[in-house]
UniProtKB/TrEMBL annotation, chains A, B:
Residue span of region Disordered: 65-84
Domain of life: Bacteria
Family: Belongs to the ROK (NagC/XylR) family.
Protein name per Swiss-Prot or TrEMBL: ROK family protein
CDD domains: ASKHA_ATPase_ROK_BsXylR-like
A Pfam family matched in the record: ROK
Organism: Streptomyces crystallinus
């Protein structure tokens, strides 16, 4: 057998160990929501003295706050309660989708503190202009954040396309090809914001929505799931044991371009008969007799009509659900996930999409492994979306190495 | 954000550390093929003294051998060369496929030391009888292994179906449902072999073939790949960063049952239009005008006819290649693997399957990420198959904890 070992990790020096332990302690407080020093020490398996010293650094850095005195009335350390700070470093997420842009600022606890959404068609304008508009929206969000004493540790852009190394290789529904989104956005933000410059990264929107589902979804939910993000495009993401699968080039999850009918209608991606052409937002709206360009209002209208029993709406949803189910059956046979999560516009439309999709899954997944009514095809949590996932990704970076983000 | 931390690892006690280090040293010798104590110490970052003591235990346990004296003529320790033992513990793999059974014994270096194959139709007989025949073949292989002073540490059965917890939940092409293969095989082996009883495990054949590709394929090959195993059924497996993806129930990889045409012919799995019906061995043979039941000889005949330019053979291969490409395009969009490996009967037929499959990939994978001629769709290595992967899985268990397998 040939060697397939990963390279050995470098020897940890003392500073690395201290930074690592600082992260451990901050994560313990973060994950518990509130904790005592003793509780943290038990969880991270460090001595009480070591934890107290690390907590001191986290308090100084503004990452945690303490409240509550011990019952003895002393301002004693062991009994006070530590919480993630509600001020100080924060994460910023900016979702630029086809027909809306959302900016979201979350604090160290992961709480949404600012949220601004602009409904507008981003297809009509050149990428630089779209990014400039998004930067202006972000600048307004940063003002609100500043008033709440939050300062951005970084910005993550959530984009509906293939994103790697800060560049959007292709976002067919935006019409973007090879757009250096990070750089353009940072430049625009510098023009309209007085805040000090921050790092800008970018990531596929479905990946970030899936991470938001993982982080903010109901406790006890599956950690191995396939996430579908229904928008103008149909994005997808795979979370395996709590880790996002990025693939060899960072482009995994493009379920919208799995072929449904090889001879079907042409797709914006260049191929034919992709799932997106049958189950994307535009197909749903036009199938339901609603203007394709009606955006979120159109989706709400489709939902209203379905609820009222409108036949065209129900047929469009039935077809989309069947096509979703067909593609999902293949994906489930390939990946054997615990659950499949329907996000984006699919969340509100799940009551009508789920039954036909479940029927396809029940008849096509091998060995009866997906019986109807299993509850394993479910709508996404209302608390997670790509913008929040994007902001939380920044917070994750802070939690991973708080020493790198301490207040100047 | 809610807590998604894995449970903390138990504190390692001294015995655990020693066993772990023993494994590290054995793996170092195994991965290098041959190594000096000094080389091992540098690689595993332990002191020379610690390594020498661990090597002593491995020599006593019969896991490594040493040869070669230092040039100074001393029987000195530091300069002698350590190698994995060619005698002692070995792994046994038994692939029970639809039209053949193969038993393979590999030593600690991963070398094939015994290999027996019986071509016969396993569909005709009840599972217990098939397993009894396989046990008899295994017993003969164990005799040969014994003559080479190899003793089995365990047996892994490779089976063409959904396997979990020692039971074949479903193997449609064998006609097996809910067969406790481990137990039945162990009982039959005890009847016909005088060797002491060994642990028996089982696993999907495509998973094991993919592991064999990972372990025995050309050095420098991708560690993230999709493996297709073309047999009577079409099996699949996903290796991500050198790890097999098993899925939530251990059933990931069933690419043979991804729907190609939802209204297509019925498949043995109960669904319609599965890939297997278009690109499995039976479809290839009958499409090429050869008796479906002709097995390996039939595949050789198909290859011969294709090479001779026979039109029916070329058409059958062209259709299968296109269908493979279509399903692979969906899988590549979803998973973004570095390569796709064609194993089983597809290996020999790759010259004819690859061009039409590449054409589908080139036109259907998003963003031109799979240009023709990329070489990313390639035949499997001739040195790996499911039986060898099954045997090597046992060797892996020994390498993970040699202390558990020391000579009595």
């Amino acid at each position: 057998m040939k060697s397939n070992l990963a390279p050995l990790a470098p020897k940890a020096d003392q500073d690395t160990v201290r930074r690592h332990n600082l992260s451990l302690v901050l994560r313990a407080v973060h994950d518990e929501g509130e904790a005592t020093r003793a509780g943290v020490a038990a969880r991270v398996r460090l001595t009480r003295a070591a934890v107290s010293s690390l907590v001191e650094q986290l308090l100084e850095g503004g990452f945690v706050t303490e409240s509550g005195k011990t019952s003895s009335g002393q301002a004693g350390r062991p009994g006070t309660v530590l919480k993630p700070a509600r001020t100080g470093v924060a994460g910023v997420g900016v979702e630029i989708n086809v027909d809306y842009t959302t900016v979201c600022v979350v604090d160290l606890a992961g709480t949404d503190r600012v949220r601004l959404t602009e409904h507008l068609d981003n297809r009509g304008a050149p990428p630089a202009e779209v990014l400039a508009r998004a930067a202006r929206l972000t600048s307004r969000a940063l003002d609100s954040a500043g008033q709440q004493e939050l300062r951005p540790a970084g910005v993550t852009l959530a984009l509906p396309g293939l994103v790697a190394g800060g560049t959007v290789r292709q976002a067919p529904n935006l019409g973007w090809n090879g757009v250096p989104a990070d750089t353009l956005f940072a430049r625009e933000l510098a023009k309209c914001s007085e805040a000090p410059p921050v790092a800008v990264g970018s990531e596929n929107e479905a990946n970030l929505a899936a991470l938001a589902e993982l982080w903010f979804g109901a406790p006890g939910e599956a950690r191995t799931f396939l996430y579908l993000s229904g928008e103008i495009g149909v994005g997808g993401a795979l979370v395996l044991n709590g880790e996002l699968l990025r693939g060899a080039h960072g482009f995994a999850g493009e379920i919208g371009h799995v072929p449904v009918d090889p001879a079907g209608p042409e797709c914006r991606c260049g191929a034919r008969g992709c799932l997106e052409r049958y189950a994307g937002q535009s197909a749903l709206l036009s199938g339901g007799g609603i203007d394709e360009g009606a955006g979120a209002a159109g989706v709400a209208e489709l939902e209203r009509r379905a609820r009222a029993g409108d036949e065209r709406a129900l047929t469009a949803l039935g077809t989309a659900g069947r096509m979703l189910g067909r593609v999902l059956a293949g994906a489930v046979n390939l990946l054997d996930p615990q659950t499949v999560v329907l996000g984006g516009v699919y969340r509100a439309l799940a009551p009508w999409l789920t039954p036909p999709a479940e029927a396809e899954l029940a008849s096509r997944v091998v060995s009866g492994l997906w019986p109807r009514g299993s509850g394993r095809l479910r709508p996404s949590s209302p608390s997670g979306d790509a913008a929040r996932g994007a902001a939380a990704l920044v917070v994750e970076a802070v939690l991973d190495d708080p020493a790198g983000w301490a207040q100047a």
